[in-house]
Structures are given as C-alpha cells and as structure tokens.
Amino acid sequence: MTRRSCTIYVVGITCAVLLAVGIGLFAGQVFRTLMNNRLKKEIVLVEGSRVFDSWKKPPPPVYMQFFFFNVTNPDVFIAGGKPEVKQIGPYTYREYRYKDNVSMVANGKMVSAYNTKSFVFLREKSVGDPAEDNITTVNIPAWAVMNNVKDSFWRTSMVSIWMNSLKSGLFTTRTVDELLWGYEDRLLVRVASTKPEVETVFGLMYKKNGSNDGEFIYHTGEQNYMDYGRIETWKGQRELSFWSSNYSNSIVGSDGSAFHPLLDKDERIYIFTPDLCRTIYMEFEKDVEVKGIPAYRFTPPRSVLASKEENPDNEGFCVTPKECLGTGVLKVSPCRKGAPVVASFPHFYLADGKYVAAIEGLSPERTHHQTFLDLNPTTGVIVRAHKRAQVNVLMQRIPGIPSTKFLNETVFPVMFLNESVEIDDASAEKLKKLLLISNLVSNFPLVIVGLGVILLLVFVILLCQARKQKSSAEDDTAYSPVNDKEKEDPQNGTYIGLTPKADVEA
C-alpha cells in the first residue's frame, strides 16, 4: 500500500469519526448540558459564588425619577367640573441599594437579608429644585382622615369642623421635598391629640430614605436552580393578610433583584413588591439587546390589574364587593392604614379609558409608561429595567363633608415614579465574556462537525486525485511501435510490440 493510499484511508476514517462524534454530541446536547449544569452551580446565593457579592451590592447605578401632576383648576373640580393637570418632572435621585444583615439560615439552604435603600438628589438630571418648586395636588392626609370616619356621621361632622377651622381643604400646595420626604400636617396633629397612634407627618416617601422593607428570607438555588432568589418569607410571613383570597395574599417569586438562570420565553416571572402589597407577574414580550448582550423583555400584561370580570383571579383584591374598581387600578387602602390610595401604571396605561377621560392632561404611552425587565436568558441577569407606578387617590362624595357634595367620583393622579437601571460597562464586559465562553463550550460539537466537514472535502479531493493518477498510469501502458524497423532488430532480435490485437491484424 502506497503512502498516498494510507493518507486517504487515515483522512477518511478521521472524517467519519469526527462527523459521527460531533453529530452525536450535538444531537445529545452533551456540552450544552454540561455548561448549563455549571451555571446552575455557580449562580447561587452562597458566600464565594460568582453572583453573591453583586447580589448584596449591585454595581449598576439605579435612578429614581418622580413626576408630579400639578392641578391647575382645583376649584372647578370641587364644583363638579373636569379637573386639569400638568405633569411636572422629573426630580431625579440616585438610589443606593444594598442587602443588609445578610446571614445564612436553615442550615445554609436559605439566606436572610434586609433591602436597604437611600436616595441622593441629582440636580443635573432634574427640572428644578425640590426645596423650592411648589405642587398643587390632592390633600392626601385630609382624604385619609375623611375616609376613616365616613361610616360615622358624628365623627364625620367633627372632622368637617376641624378642617374648616384649620383651613385644610381637599387640595394642598406643597414643595416637592415636603410631598416626598414629609411635612407635619395640622389635621393629623389634631387627630393625634385624640389618637396618639396616628402619625402626624405625611410624605409619599416618608421614612423610606435609608430604611428597608423588612426581613426577607430567600432560597439560595443550590437545591433547585429555579428557586434562585425566590422569597420564602417576608417579615416572617409566608403569605399576606390584606386581601380576601389565597391567590391575592400569596407571596410568590423574587423581590425583583434576582432571577434564575436559563430563562424560558414561555414562563411567567413573579415578583413580590411591598409597595403594591401584592405579587405581580410578567410575561415575555420580545427579544432585545442591551450593550451587545441578548435579552428577553418581560412586562406585566393587562390581566395583572384587570377587573374581576376580565380576570376572576383578581376578585380577591377588592377591598369589599362594593369597592372593586375597574381594569388598570388597584385600591391599596388595606395596607395603607385605610387611606383611599389607588395604584396604577403612569397616566393609567393599560387601564379602562374612563380613568384617562376623567382627567384633562393625561396621555398614556407605552414607551414612557410601560414597566419592563430585560433579562439575559442564560444567566438571568438584569441588563435593563424600568419600574413605573402611579399613586392616585379615590375622591368621592362623603356624607357630612359639605366640600365634597359636588364631586364626581374620580381616581385622581398625584405622582408617578420611574425606577430605572441599566447594566454598567464593566459588568457588561464581564457578562459578555461569560456568555462567549458558554457559547463556545455549548457549541463545541459544531466545531467538531466543522472539522469533519473540512476533512470530508480533503478526502474527496484526495480520492479525485488518486483516481486521476490511476487513469493516467493505465493510459501510459498502451502504445504502438514508431516504425517497422523497430520490429526486427538484427542485434536485439525481434521486438514484440504491445499493440492491440486489432492493430496487428491490420
């Protein structure tokens, strides 16, 4: 066997082995499974893991923007007319968040932590000075007091007298700082004189700067990667007690800071948020890319805040059968000390049209008012997010309060916030390197198949060359004498020509 023949056989055998092995590994997803198992072991909430430090203190900057609805015609609304508002903002704060008092519990199977947040004002990203800019808006303390006494004619009459003597109206004008971080309300001070447990200071973000929402206990994800970051208890509770059904009171999913790796487009993502006093869910919307990182966009569908008629599961969120609002709004008074506070998306995005039509100056837009999460599906890392929510007050006629007798029942917007984050450049580079390694390892069988295909081409070329050379050799052995003299040579004897039989007879 010639050297060329040996080469052909070696190339052919190697080609066959590479193709068989590569296709087999690819079909069996062996390397992808190995890489996924590696990710499941690395992405866990235990000391020393790849994600633990960034989970305790997330590196990307978080910004909190506040937009207020300044009421331009409060007297018209009080007289029964249509209110008009003008959006003012943003007032932007840098939000610093970290996990405090982190400790392993349940024999290391879970981790306990407090989510602490603090805020620093950013003048360059804001429209004005919160200490100087005034906003005319709903007098939330007054409405909270009126709502608490509305079932007692005597107490309602007393509150009406207090409001008149203190000149506490249905609307108030305060600075942005006061509305956010708190001011002492004269009506609350009067109420506290008879009920010492009543807080005399009111602010939409009162006591939320440098504070936390209580103790969370999370699953580490070691036993099951799907449990990574999942809440086990909040403030020692496995479920809430504000609502009237098990579904409504359930504490499910994460707190919004961690999501399990290997996300699927078909799954629902559950997030428990203390601000809304409930769990919400998000569904896949579309593929996006952030700083070169592929991501799935998840967003709350309309069904999350749908009416009980549209989504029967939401019936448990009705305060009472008579206090059940329409699609797109959620009355959260059970967890707001009875205050008639209503939550929604900004400008009543995804809500019934009647809520938008009742207020002049609102224009819901998906781009500016949608809440969404962009998650890398391989690692579950948040690469971009916008949490947008609106605070409203339910304003209606209250017997015994003369100033409310002409009011049309209205869910009145006060303020909405936009809490946003986008992965920083350093973290993005680290994540891209991790994804590159993951893709290379997962697709290694394709590399083997590629080498097999290359060797197959080489094998075909060598076979063609060998066949061509064999044909040339056969042609060289068939020849005729040049002339008749060569047939008889007196010195060498008669020459026998290798001439085809037909030519000799000729």
TrEMBL record:
Keywords: Glycoprotein, Membrane, Transmembrane, Transmembrane helix. The chain crosses the membrane at residues 7-31, 444-464. InterPro entries: CD36_fam, LimpII. One of its GO terms (biological process) is receptor-mediated endocytosis. GO terms for molecular function: scavenger receptor activity. GO terms for cellular component: lysosome; membrane. Belongs to the CD36 family. This is Scavenger receptor class B, member 2a. It comes from Oreochromis aureus (Israeli tilapia).
